[in-house]
């Protein structure tokens, strides 16, 4: 066991971890931030995407020890300060971008990473960016639409809801 | 996963010293190694992370005009920072896996792993790169020694990869959509003194050069020059995604597409 310290959602966080402790386990089990989901645990599904120093990473495929000193942001920090939904989260609700919601934390974190680098992505760019985020419910269409809408673009030409 | 200790050296020298411990193993981006450890297919006692070593990160142009990529440079950084110098390589990096994989996965990890369906081995072999380690420089032609096998010794780490910059180059990846690796990928590079063609995803021996196509393209760099050339499917990977014959056919198709796209 070794002590690891990092900044999670703007606050100092530390805990004892084994070498093999994954960042996803540290967030969920030690810090009890269970918004980060673990779907596959094999770096395929993207449900566990968080930001480490501003970059989207799969928390199930990074060791907690490697995040020492890093700034980590999880879905728990995405809402506005007053608790209302962020623009991306609100767009997911408005455009039915979720059904069971299991993939949603990863989808929102990936969407936020995309929009940071590319504020008005095309539909193709959104679909390509979400290549590592799997959703078993929605068929992706409304997720793409929600992200388009969150970026302030007109989504009336994107058909079905 | 079996448990292990994690060390985070900040220099190549420290990393090499740490790797001399019994059952120590290098950790790059972990995008291959962590899933492997979860399956208990490896049981190192110490993982030596290469991610805190500044001298192993980034892209630059060397004095000899070659593109140098630090061994611990992520795919995302290569996609961005190599674009102005070697667009074919940057393009390849920008299509490895997905964005989160590209933010962690490194060129050194990819080459050291030598997955028979990985993209970077095709770029390294196809452009005649030099793989620089803590101990020596290895030509790509000597580095890849069959599926998941390389010339690296125990504890040896890839510190840098040096790419001669071709006049034109392109990589065409026929996506295996479930794994996001290449079902077949072909890297074509045209230099003043000839053309190199490297194929990944197809052979049971891992990445290889298609020398017949290199000769044909050397005298006529056009997709038509590859017409009539075939590779045998006998020693090719056959799995539920495609037979050896199918992959052999794709080698020709992807080579033509790469030549056409390289221009
Ligand atoms: C969902 C998914 C999709 C992927 N798609 C693709 C794809 O399309 N194309 C593709 O090419 N790859 C793909 N990959 C693999 C990815 O590129 C990995 O990042 C890469 O194969 C391994 O690099 P790494 O830095 O993560 O290495 P690690 O997983 O950390 O290590 C892999 C091996 O290399 C060794 N090693 C690491 N760094 C060094 C070094 N500098 N010197 C010597 N040895 C070292 C380790 O000891 C280990 O044996 C994918 C991976 C995932 C999870
Ligand atoms: S839980 Fe991490 S990618 Fe699926
Ligand atoms: S909403 Fe159910 S997995 Fe995406």
TrEMBL record, chain A:
What does UniProt give as the signal peptide span? none
Q: Which InterPro entries does the annotation name?
A: 2Fe-2S-bd, 2Fe-2S_ferredoxin-type, Diverse_Oxidoreductases
For the 2Fe-2S ferredoxin-type domain, which residue ranges apply?
2-78
Arranged from A to Z, the UniProt key words for this protein are: 2Fe-2S, Iron, Iron-sulfur, Metal-binding, Oxidoreductase
A Gene Ontology molecular function term for this protein is: 2 iron, 2 sulfur cluster binding
Pfam families according to UniProt: Fer2, Fer2_2
Its name, as the record gives it, is (2Fe-2S)-binding protein
At the highest ranks, the source species' classification is: Bacteria, Pseudomonadati, Pseudomonadota, Alphaproteobacteria, Rhodobacterales
From TrEMBL, chain B:
FAD-binding PCMH-type domain location is: 1-168
The keyword Oxidoreductase is annotated on this UniProt entry: yes
Keywords assigned by UniProt? FAD, Flavoprotein, Oxidoreductase
Cite a single GO MF annotation: FAD binding
Cross-referenced PANTHER family: XANTHINE DEHYDROGENASE SUBUNIT C-RELATED
User: Can you say what this protein is called?
Assistant: Xanthine dehydrogenase family protein subunit M
Origin species? Roseobacter insulae
């Amino acid at each position: 066991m070794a002590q690891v310290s990092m900044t999670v959602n703007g606050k100092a966080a530390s805990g004892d971890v084994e070498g093999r402790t994954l960042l996803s386990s540290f967030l969920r089990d030690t810090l009890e931030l269970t918004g980060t989901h673990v779907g596959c645990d094999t770096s395929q599904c993207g449900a566990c995407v968080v930001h480490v120093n501003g970059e989207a990473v799969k928390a199930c495929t990074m060791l907690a020890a490697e995040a020492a000193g890093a700034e980590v942001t999880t879905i728990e920090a995405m809402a506005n300060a007053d608790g209302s939904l962020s623009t991306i989260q609100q767009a997911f609700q408005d455009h039915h971008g979720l059904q069971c919601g299991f993939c949603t934390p990863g989808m929102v974190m990936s969407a936020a990473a995309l929009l940071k680098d590319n504020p008005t992505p095309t539909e193709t760019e959104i679909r390509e960016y979400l290549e590592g985020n799997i959703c078993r419910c929605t068929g992706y269409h409304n997720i793409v639409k929600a992200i388009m809408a969150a970026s302030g673009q007109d989504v009336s030409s994107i058909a079905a809801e | 996963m079996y448990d292990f200790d994690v060390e985070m050296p900040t220099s190549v020298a420290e990393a090499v010293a740490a790797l001399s411990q019994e059952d120590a193993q290098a950790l790059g981006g972990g995008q291959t190694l962590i899933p492997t450890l979860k399956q208990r297919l490896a049981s190192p006692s110490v993982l030596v992370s290469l991610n805190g070593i500044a001298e192993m990160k980034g892209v630059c142009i060397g004095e000899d005009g070659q593109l140098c990529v630090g061994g611990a440079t992520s795919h995302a950084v290569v996609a961005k920072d190599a674009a102005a110098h070697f667009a074919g390589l940057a393009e390849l990096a920008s299509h490895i896996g997905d964005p989160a994989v590209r933010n962690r996965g490194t060129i050194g990890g990819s080459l050291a792993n030598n997955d028979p369906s990985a993209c970077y081995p095709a770029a390294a072999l196809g452009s005649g790169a030099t793989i620089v380690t803590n101990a020596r420089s290895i030509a790509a032609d000597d580095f890849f020694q069959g599926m998941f096998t390389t010339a690296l010794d125990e504890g040896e780490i890839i510190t840098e990869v040096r790419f001669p910059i071709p006049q034109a180059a392109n990589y065409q990846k026929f996506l295996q959509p479930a794994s996001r690796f290449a079902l077949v990928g072909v890297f074509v590079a045209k230099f003043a003194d000839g053309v190199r063609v490297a194929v990944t995803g197809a052979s049971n021996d891992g990445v290889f050069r298609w020398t017949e196509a290199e000769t044909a393209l050397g005298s006529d760099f056009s997709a038509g020059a590859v017409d009539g050339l075939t590779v045998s499917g006998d020693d090719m990977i056959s799995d539920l995604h495609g037979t050896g014959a199918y992959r052999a056919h794709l080698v020709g198709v992807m080579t033509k597409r790469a030549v056409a796209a390289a221009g």
